[in-house]
Amino acid sequence: MSDHTRRARHPASNLRTVPEVQAQGRRGLLAAAGALGAWSMVAPAANAQTAYPARPIRLMVPWPPGQATDQAARVLAQEMTKSIGQPIVIDNRAGAGGSIGTDAVAKAAADGYTLLAASSGPVSVSPLLTKTPYDPDRDLLPIGMIGLSPYLLVTAPDFPARDAREFVALVRANPGKYTFASSGTGATAHLIAESFNAALNLQAVHVPYKGSVPALTDVIGGQVAYCIETAASTMPLIRSGKLRAYGVSLEKGSSVTPGIPPLAAAAGIPGFDLGAWLGLMAPAATPRPVVEKLAAELEKAMQSPELRTAFNGIAVEVDYRKADEFNRYLKMISGRFAEVIRKGNIKVD
Prior knowledge:
Low-confidence stretches: 1-23, 28-49
Number of helices: 14
Shape: globular
Number of strands: 11
């Protein structure tokens, strides 16, 4: 019998010994274990993304309780909590014109669990006037804009001008005679007033105060001629007859200041459209899936009739803008304020 025939009848070369079979089995088990181990490493990462948020979210408010940003943040947190699946907890971290709380978020872990109730002062204004420990463009990521706080040009009721046109004519005709108050040098109210004065060539003397309450008190008393302050602080005084309003700072007017015309039309400054913005931000390196989740939840909250009613009650005009549009607005408003600061040679001691 030939060797070929013997191999055909007894293909010993195709048979495996018991040790060989056991070895192959061990290799298979090891491969399976390796694959399972790799999946066990991938699965938590995938679950971490799909499960966000897995614990309460902290919304940092860089102002004391009761301030406009704080009130708006509480309304927003309440609405977003309804659908996001975890509580959104307010953390007030006031100080340094909002810079302390803003810096805390800029340096927080970028995991979506620390967010910023952002506002124009510490984000758009302070970096133009002082060296802040954060760079808004580098350290913060816009999620969405939620509203604008409109400002009103007001005087005492006995000021000798019946409307905005007469007010402008009177102040323009008497350069250096009239004074205007603000809640502080470099405050948003100050910059809006300076922008208003410059647009109409009004030369008035700035009198800074430590807050809007003492500023308005002296306007009511006649110690200062006028100021441009938030609707939240001025509307109760206007309704009670303690202040006279000439116009609102938003070009299209405002639903929170019914019956008061926009300064753009009333004072003859087309395009005048300034307010204190409010928005939601996160640390810059926050993962994209988390940002998208937050953006979707924010958009949902902004459609709520309850939120709109609540914003109206705290004199905040609902102005929702998605991240891209919000970012464009931030660049525009910073550029405008930078020009006002430069032309007015405004400095903070």
